[in-house]
C-alpha cells in the first residue's frame, strides 16, 4: 500500500483528505507542518465595523476566516447586515465552507483553486475603482493576488490577521513515522510555507527522499518545491481531496 505523507496545517475538524485517501486504497499520514497565531485584531475589528467602507471581502484561507470570525460574531447585527449585502470571495471549497459555517455569509468563487483563478471572478463581479475589498491574510501571504488586483484597477485593503510558524510537533511526527517503518511513497505539500518548514527538518533527520513522488497543492507550492530543486510529480489544480486522489491515480 502507498504511504502518503500530508504536510499541512493541523485541523482536527478537517479529515477530508485522510478519509478520501483511505477509501481510495492509500495509507495517509497527516504531518502537522504549520501553526498559527491571530494578530492585529484591533485593526481587523475596526475594518469589520465599517462594511459601508468596503465593497466586499476576499478570503484565500480557512485561517483568515477563523481570524475574522473571532471578531465578527461579537459585532452588532447591524454590521452583519452590512456584510450580507457585500460580495464575499473565497479560494476553494474548504474556505467557502468555513465562511458559510462561521460567518453565515454567502460566498463566490469556491470553485477556484488559487488566487490566479479567483481574480477573473472578482473582476467579473466588481467594478473598477470601487471601494476597497478587505483582504485578511497571513504573514507569509504571496503578492500574486494584490498584484493581479492592482493590474485590473481593483482597490483592496490587505491586513495581516494571523502569523504562521513551524508546528512544534513537525520533527517528532516525522521521527515517529520513520521509526515505525512508515516511509513515504508520496509526499504532498499544501503550501509554500509547509515546504520551507518541512524540507530542512527532513534533511536534519537524514530522511532519504530519493524516489519519493512529490505532489504540490497549487502552483505557488509547486514553485516553492522547484526552488528547492525538488522534482515534482504533479500539481493539484484545486485544493480538494478528489483532485489529489485523481492525481495519485492518474499521474501526468
Report on this structure.
The chain has helices at residues 16-23, 41-48, 62-72, 77-84, 93-103, 115-125, 144-151, 170-179, 192-204, 219-227, 241-249; strands at residues 3-8, 27-32, 34-38, 56-59, 87-90, 133-138, 156-166, 186-189, 213-217, 234-236. It is an alpha/beta fold and 252 residues long. The chain has 2 domains: 2-34 and 169-249, Rossmann fold (3-Layer(aba) Sandwich); 40-160, Rossmann fold (3-Layer(aba) Sandwich), CATH 3.40.50.10090. The strands form 2 sheets. A 5-stranded parallel sheet has the order 2-1-8-9-10, sandwiched between helices. It has a 5-stranded mixed sheet with strand order 3-7-6-4-5, with helices on both faces. Helix 7 links the parallel strand 6 and strand 7 (156-166). The longest helix is centred in the last third of the chain and has 13 residues, at 192-204. 39% of the residues are buried. The mean pLDDT is 94.
